[in-house]
Amino acid sequence: MIKQSIFGRIAQLAKANINAMIDAAEDPQRMLDQMVRDYTENIREAEAAVAQTIGSLRLLEQDHAEDVRESQEWGNKALAASNKAEEYRATGKASEAEKFDNLAKVALQRQIQYETEARGAEPQIQSQTEVVEKLKDGLNRMRGKLQELSNKRDELNARQKTAQAQAQVQDALKAFDVLDPTSEVSRFEDKIRREEARVLGQQELAASSLDAQFESLESLGQQSEIEARLAALKSRNAERIVSSEEV
After folding, report:
1. Which ranges form a coiled coil (predicted)?
2. Would you say 115 and 74 are in contact if contact means Cβ atoms under 8 Å apart?
3. What pLDDT score was predicted for residue 13?
């Protein structure tokens, strides 16, 4: 019953829908860790049960081997007693021969007893051997399942950490995305652009004022030239008048 309960719990774990359990778990990593611990503990109990079964089988094998050895020894004793009886009978010592015949019979009786015990143990040994082989095979499969479960846990843990790291990287990249109007870099760029625009406006305004000044200078120069030419005309007219009066 003990072994059946152990292997029953192992079978339930093996048949469990791991994916559904993971999806339903609030903390899949903790759940997987607990599953590994439970599976490991059940395997430890199974190993103890299998070891006990193997120990019982080895005791049966030892007892069987001892029965076979005893049967052979008593067979040898019966043969020796029978030979001795024949020697006494050949020399006419009938009483001595009968004595050793009786000893041979006792030895044969013991031989039959041990042979019977050995034959009786053989089916049990065969059955127990088959059970042990099945238990060993099942235990090896359970160990394989435990390794698979441990590997799956490590894989999922690694994937979870990778996903978390990728999320952190994406958050960091988003924080420095110059195309993001809510980011500090974008606001700083807007501030610089406004400053650049203000400077361009000042430059344009200054250039406009300077052009007006040059236009004023050009207008003054043109007026001065007109006045000079007018003065020259007046001077030439005056000279012509003076010349005509002299004539």
Report:
1. 132-166
2. no
3. 54
What local confidence, expressed as pLDDT, does residue 226 receive? 74
Residue 22 burial (CB count, 10 A): 15
3-state secondary structure of 171: helix
Residues with Cβ within 8 Å of residue 181, at least 6 apart in sequence: 187
Burial class (CB in 10 A: 0-12, 13-18, 19+), 173: exposed
Look at residue 68 in the predicted model and tell me its pLDDT. Answer: 95
According to DSSP H, which parts of the chain are helical? 2-15, 18-24, 28-90, 94-175, 184-246
**The amino acid at 166:** Q
Question: What is the pLDDT at residue 2?
Answer: 45
Q: Quote the CA–CA distance of 158 and 206 in Å, as a whole number.
A: 65
Residue 37 has what pLDDT?
87
Question: Which residue ranges of the chain lie beneath pLDDT 70?
Answer: 1-26, 28, 175-186, 206-222, 242-247
- Going by C-alpha positions, the residue among 122, 39, 115, 123 that lies closest to residue 78 is 115
Q: What is the DSSP letter of 178?
A: T
Query: Cβ neighbours of residue 98 under 8 Å, at least 6 residues apart?
Result: 85
CA distance 10 to 138: 10
Calculate Rg over the CA atoms of the chain.
59
Q: Give the per-residue pLDDT at 34.
A: 83
3-state secondary structure of 92: coil
At 198 the pLDDT is 81
- CA torsion angle for 86, 87, 91, 94 (degrees, to 10)? -40
Alpha carbon of residue 218 to chain centroid? 87
